[in-house]
DNA sequence: GTCATTTACATAGCTTGCTATCTAAATACA
DNA sequence: TGTATTTAGATAGCAAGCTATGTAAATGAC
């Protein structure tokens, strides 16, 4: 093993990301929800409606991924997807009462996981971590945007 | 949006992880390789053979995930999977010459991505980041292990 | 006003992750 | 020795990520 994973930003960040998804999955599955639903739930938790495009941007996933996630959420009675009267190409997505009812429990799960991780860190370390990971995201988003050109 | 993603360890870490995978994918696809191959390639790059169990542990994925990845790699001529003469339950996995030939390019890709990200950070920030993410991983692995009980 | 381009979403097909469960070999122990 | 347990992989089935491509509506250029 020439390259070692202990010095690899990619390996470590990816592993941490997957472990966080597993943990969130454990909290959400009793609610009939899963991690990919989170950005949609949080964006629409005030009962508003957004286009698929807006949700795609907030979630940081590709458009086709969001279409698939929303299709499953509609199938499971979590969202309604209606034509946008202002633009025949787009749709407006809103949470159903079933999903809105679950919001408090979702918020509690998100808070609990954040706390589980952050309580290991001092306040200074927390802001270091947030600052560093956001800078890493910024570099990678630049690369990702450039690749699309 | 009651909870915001800017203060969510999960959202940010997961996003960074996915952006890193996308970047690695861009480097590896011209080689006929993909991100999930990396832990296998790095573990066996000296021509040695390891059991599937050992590879599973190094990659940090579940056993069934590794079986699927190795099956695809075998299909694509990247690994050989042979019965372990020492234990009839297990198998020994080794890279083929085709895969071994690609190792230098794989190492270059890994180094380039690491450098792309890390050159944005001061040496002190780099060690901060590694220290913090490893502590986060440690907490989550404890949770993950406990859930299996 | 018409045609080309752009935009929003849908669809197809793949990989990679997961859980749950099955089989067969090895190990433990009574 | 013989049965029970544990362990290593395989298999099935699903979710969620991706790329590439198709379709229909909106926009823009003339």
Helix fraction bin of chain A = 55-70%
State the domain count of chain A: 1
Per DSSP, the total helix count of chain A is 6
Q: Strand percentage of chain A, roughly?
A: 5-15%
Largest sheet of chain A: 3 strands, antiparallel
Give the CA-CA distance, first to last residue of chain A.
Answer: 35 Å
Strand arrangement, largest sheet of chain A?
1-3-2
Oligomer: homodimer
Low-confidence stretches of chain A: none
Order of helices and strands of chain A: HHEHHEEHH
Radius of gyration of chain A: 18 Å
Please, what is the CATH homologous superfamily of chain A? Winged helix-like DNA-binding domain superfamily/Winged helix DNA-binding domain
Please name the CATH architecture of chain A.
Orthogonal Bundle
Task: Kindly describe this structure.
- The structure is a homodimer of 149-residue chains.
- Chain A contains 6 helices and 3 strands; from the N terminus they run ααβααββαα.
- With 149 residues, chain A is mainly alpha-helical.
- Chain A has one domain (5-118): Orthogonal Bundle (Arc Repressor Mutant, subunit A), CATH 1.10.10.10.
- Chain A has a 3-stranded antiparallel beta sheet with strand order 1-3-2.
- In chain A, a hairpin with a 7-residue loop joins strand 2 and strand 3 (91-95).
- The model of chain A has no long low-confidence stretch (mean pLDDT 93).
- At the A-B interface, helix 1, helix 2, helix 5 and helix 6 of A face helix 1, helix 2, helix 5 and helix 6 of B.
- Chain A binds a DNA duplex (30 and 30 nucleotides) through helix 1 and helix 4.
